[in-house]
Each structure stands twice: as structure tokens, then as C-alpha cells.
Amino acid sequence: MKFIDLESQYIHLKDKIDQRIQDVLNHGQYIMGPEVKELEQKLAEYVGVKHVITCANGTDALTLAMMVLDVKDGDAVFCPTFTFFATAEVIAYEGATPVFVDSDADTFNICPQNLELQIQKVIAEGKLNPKAIIAVDLFGLPANYPEIEKIAEEYDLKLIEDAAQGFGGSINGKRAGSFGDIATTSFFPAKPLGCYGDGGAVFTNNDKYAELLRSYRVHGKGKDKYDNVRIGMNSRLDTIQAAILLEKLAVFPTELEARNNAAEKYTSELKSKYKVPLVPEGYVSSWAQYTLQADNRDSEMAHYRAKGVPTMVYYGTCMHNQTAFTYLGYNDEDFPVSSRIAKAVFSLPMHAYLR
Ligand SMILES: *Cc1c(COP(=O)(O)O)cnc(C)c1O
């Protein structure tokens, strides 16, 4: 049994994907070929946003968002402590200060009450300029945007949705990738929508942001190809990856349903034995991970291993315990919920071809 079965998916889509790759080899436009534009249009339709700007990976997508919002030295950017490293990394990479926030124990996502508390603390201390929030759709479940949007508005903060794991999720029909001022995703192979290498995308309804994103993506280009008007980066999505994603996106709604069926089955079979993941009313998860909580995690994982079922721990180390962030001076008492769940979580195999 595989934890994420990319091989079954490839066998299922082989003829179509092989043909799409062959098309690229035939036309030879490896950089920004027609498949990139086609993918950006299809992603915009699916997510329900005006602009999609693909890029090289999900970390660059977040970095591009930071650049557009002019996040810099002296700024505070709020993000969950229980997430993948990249969420916090991109804040520090811009020279700004990540301010970590505790989690909701039922959904694993950023806790709106603790978010407000952390914002008020930064304001009271008066050292940093509160600038933005990065909310994460952890394990595929959209964060609590109805509450987070209110807080962002009240404190005049920009909101970024890190939908690296959330692509396909929704709240009352509004899809992940459409929340906040800018949203980002990743096409890393193991994500709900993955390519065969690295890839990412940025989503926004803001015309000005979209124009800036297209410029930053290619060395800060201006109207003239050889006049660069700002400092940018080189972060394009390869045409071959776009071609693969077009075929994967076409079957994505069916796969999303299969993932949800698998999750429902897990929940009905396991809810008497473990704390199972909560999906609030009106929310749909893309089930990037199906994550249980157990006090005796190690022996539970050993039990599954003995039966030939692979399990993984996402995430055993919160951001406030990462070596690279020790300079921020946090400890476990600052984030009691996240610190507790980091010791209890383990994830079961999850993909659309699970039997
Ligand atoms: C995977 C991931 C990223 C980074 O995406 P890459 O494509 O690997 O750079 C960022 N945030 C979260 C929450 C992720 O899971």
C-alpha cells in the first residue's frame, strides 16, 4: 500500500499525459508555451478568480505575494505555528518578522481568537508594523476565512491564503484560492493537484497586483523585454508541467470526490477510536492529508506499519520550535494547542485511487 499513489493516477491518465508532453516536444516552446496560458485560464475558471499567475513552486508563489504587498524589515506578518516551514520562511526571507499564532484543535487551522490576541500584542509592544496575515488551508481544509477576513479588515491587514494544500477545498461553494487579497498554491507532486516536478500559482482579483506579479515573475520586466523596471525573480512554470497539469485538472473534480469518499469512510470507521478531523458545516476539504490525533501516536503508527499501512507525521515540529526561528524566543507555553497536537498527529494514506 502506498501513502500517496502517483503511479495509479499516471496509469489512469497515461495516454492523455503522454500526448500532452509529446505536443510540447513537438512545438518546442518549453518556456511560457501555450499550455501555460491555457492552464492559467482553466485555473482561474475553476477557482473563480480574475487572475492566475503560475510560477516555479508554492514557496515562490508566497514570496511573490510578499513582494507585491511590499512586506519588509520592520513588518509583522502573522501565520500559524502549526504549518509547513515555507509559510513562515517567506516572511523572514523578506526581512520581516513572523508572528506565530496558535491553532484550532479540531480543524488544525489558525485560531481566529488567538490571531486577534497576537495582533493586539504586537500593537501594544509598538515595535513592529502589523502588515499581513498568512492563513493556511492545512491538510486541505480552508481556514476560517469568515472570521479571519473580519479581523484583517478591523486591523487593516492584508490577507494571504496559503492554499498549497487547500486547492479544491471550499466554503459554501467559494473555492480555495479565492480568499484574501492574494492566494497561492503549490503543484508539488504530492499536493492535491500536483505536477511531475515543482510548480505553483498565485491567484488574485486585483488588476494591479496581477500586473506586478507578472513582472516580478520574470526579472521585474517592464513593457520592453530588455528594460527591467524593478528587481524581480525567475519563477516561471515549465510548459511541460503546465501540459501535465491540464490533464490532471480535467479529472480533478472526480478525484476530489474520490478523496472525500475515502475520508468519509475513514471517519465512520475510526471515529470511535481516535480524534478524527472536523469539517465544519459548509466546508469542503481537498484532503491533502487525512490526519488523526492519538496520545499514543508511536504505538498506533507501529500497529499500522505491521499491517503494511504507511503513516506519516505532519507536522511534528511547530514553527516556534524550528532551529531557524529560535531567534524569535518562543516556547511551547506560547502555543499550547499547536504544541499538543504536534505530538499527537499522524496521517493515513490518502489519494483518489485508494481502495
Ligand atoms: C507545500 C507547501 C508550501 C510550499 O510549496 P512548494 O511547492 O513545495 O514550494 C507552502 N505552504 C504549505 C502549507 C505547503 O504545504
Structure description:
The chain has helices at residues 6-27, 34-47, 58-68, 85-93, 112-125, 145-154, 207-217, 239-270, 297-306, 336-342; strands at 51-55, 75-80, 97-101, 129-136, 158-162, 170-171, 174-175, 182-186, 200-204, 283-284, 290-293, 345-348. It is α/β, with parallel strands linked by helices and 355 residues long. The protein has a 7-stranded mixed β-sheet with strand order 1-9-8-5-4-2-3, sandwiched between helices. The protein has a 3-stranded antiparallel β-sheet with strand order 7-6-10, with no helix packed on it. The protein has a two-stranded antiparallel sheet with strand order 11-12. The longest helix has 32 residues, at 239-270. The protein is globular and about 60 Å long. The chain starts with 5 loop residues before the first helix and ends in a 7-residue tail after the last strand. The structure holds pyridoxal-5'-phosphate (PLP). Pyridoxal-5'-phosphate binds at residues 57-59, 83-84, 86-87, 136, 162, 164-165, 186, 188, 198, 200.
Output the CATH class name of the largest domain: Alpha Beta
Overall CATH architecture of the largest domain: 3-Layer(aba) Sandwich
**Overall average pLDDT:** 97
> What percent of residues are in strands?
5-15%
Determine the structural class based on helices, strands and strand pairing: alpha/beta
Provide the gyration radius in Å: 20 Å
Write down the secondary-structure element order. Answer: HHEHEHEHEHEEEEEHHEEHHE
Q: Order of strands across the biggest sheet? A: 1-9-8-5-4-2-3
Query: Which molecules are bound in this entry?
Result: pyridoxal-5'-phosphate
Oligomer: single chain
Poorly predicted regions are none
Largest sheet: 7 strands, mixed
Helix percentage range: 25-40%
Q: Tally the beta strands.
A: 12
The domain count comes to 2
Helix count from the secondary structure assignment: 10
Shape type? globular
What is the third-level CATH name, the topology of the largest domain? Aspartate Aminotransferase, domain 2
